[in-house]
């Protein structure tokens, strides 16, 4: 059985379980369950703190895991990123009271509060800076006003928590994180192949839609230039003389603009449908 770690709580937990469900795997029905066996697919899911997942994967006790890139880096564990899963996006950044720090080059000698000491220590070492790291468990934004630190390094998604705490970001993001599938360098290819193909299928299905339309045959070249599809668009005859039907996958983000352009060109009966899943 393939043994896979999934976040049991926190920001990544629900979207990770949903992605696995969309990929055809059984998931726990009770959020307190710590194990779910999917016998039909030969997989066991272990629900763990996302912060601990890289440790279990690196040790070989679990084959694969879903966690955040920032948590993987912070752990220092010998696990590798196999696939960016396209959810749980956030930046990891320095933040300080306005006007207290002009750039990250001024970090030296300061007190830095963070729940990610591994990421911060690594940055300091790489940039040849010496600073005091104040490790905290959470609510790190409070550390500056409470006087235990001069600045923080923390996850920033919307920036609302920073603003409330009267902090502003300093410099460029330390790293850009998102949920990732992790494994070991020696995880057998055949063990990861099915899961990775299925997860990639879910990601493609989420970012593309299927577009179908009818168009006069003489406009086909112009129309398919707008909708080239992945391999090539499907073109079928229509009962109506001189018209053809076209089907092609298009990026979800572009679909409205493409529909406008197709309509202006002379295409009609333009229909968009969601793709539930796919293998390309
Ligand atoms: N708005 C966000 N807040 C916190 N973590 C986020 C956010 N958006 C994405 N993430 C990612 O989620 C992971 C952190 O998850 P974790 O469960 O450890 O903390 P959490 O979601 O803040 O939950 P909690 O603090 O309730 O334990 C990191 O990879 C982080 O980059
Ligand atoms: O940029 P934002 O959209 O405001 O999100 C980022 C904030 O959300 C998380 O805090 P969480 O609520 O998980 O509390 P914690 O610090 O105790 O983990 C994270 O640690 C930041 O504080
Ligand atoms: Mg948190």
Automatic annotation (TrEMBL):
It catalyses: 1-(5-phospho-beta-D-ribosyl)-ATP + diphosphate = 5-phospho-alpha-D-ribose 1-diphosphate + ATP. One of its GO terms (cellular component) is cytoplasm. Feedback inhibited by histidine. InterPro entries: ATP-PRT_HisG_long, ATP_PRibTrfase_cat, ATP_PRibTrfase_CS, ATP_PRibTrfase_HisG, HisG_C, N-reg_PII-like_a/b, N-reg_PII/ATP_PRibTrfase_C. NCBIfam families: hisG, HisG_C-term. Catalyzes the condensation of ATP and 5-phosphoribose 1-diphosphate to form N'-(5'-phosphoribosyl)-ATP (PR-ATP). Has a crucial role in the pathway because the rate of histidine biosynthesis seems to be controlled primarily by regulation of HisG enzymatic activity. This is ATP phosphoribosyltransferase.
């Amino acid at each position: 059985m393939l043994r896979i770690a999934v976040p049991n709580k926190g920001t990544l937990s629900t979207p990770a379980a949903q992605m696995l469900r969309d990929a055809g795997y059984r998931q726990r029905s009770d959020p307190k369950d710590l194990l779910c066996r999917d016998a039909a697919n030969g997989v066991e899911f272990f629900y763990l703190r996302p912060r601990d997942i890289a440790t279990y994967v690196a040790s070989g006790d679990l084959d694969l895991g879903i966690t955040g890139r920032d948590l993987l880096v912070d752990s220092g564990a010998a696990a590798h990123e196999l696939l960016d899963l396209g959810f749980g996006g956030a930046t990891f950044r320095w933040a300080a009271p306005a006007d207290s720090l002009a750039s990250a080059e001024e970090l030296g000698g300061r007190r830095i509060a963070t729940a990610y000491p591994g990421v911060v220590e690594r940055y300091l070492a790489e940039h040849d800076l010496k600073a005091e790291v104040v490790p905290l468990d959470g609510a790190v934004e409070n550390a500056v006003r409470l006087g235990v630190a001069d600045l923080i390094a923390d996850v920033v998604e919307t920036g609302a928590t920073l603003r409330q705490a009267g902090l502003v970001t300093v410099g460029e993001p330390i790293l850009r994180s998102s949920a990732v599938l992790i494994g070991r360098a020696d995880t057998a290819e055949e063990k990861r192949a099915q899961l990775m193909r299925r997860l990639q299928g879910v990601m493609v299905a989420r970012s593309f839609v299927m577009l179908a339309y009818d168009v006069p045959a003489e406009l086909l070249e112009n129309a398919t230039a707008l909708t080239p599809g992945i391999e090539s668009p499907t073109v079928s005859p229509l009962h109506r003389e001189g018209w053809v039907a076209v089907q092609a996958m298009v990026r979800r983000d572009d679909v409205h603009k493409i529909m406008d352009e197709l309509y202006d060109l002379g295409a009609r009966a333009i229909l968009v449908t969601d793709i539930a899943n796919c293998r390309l």
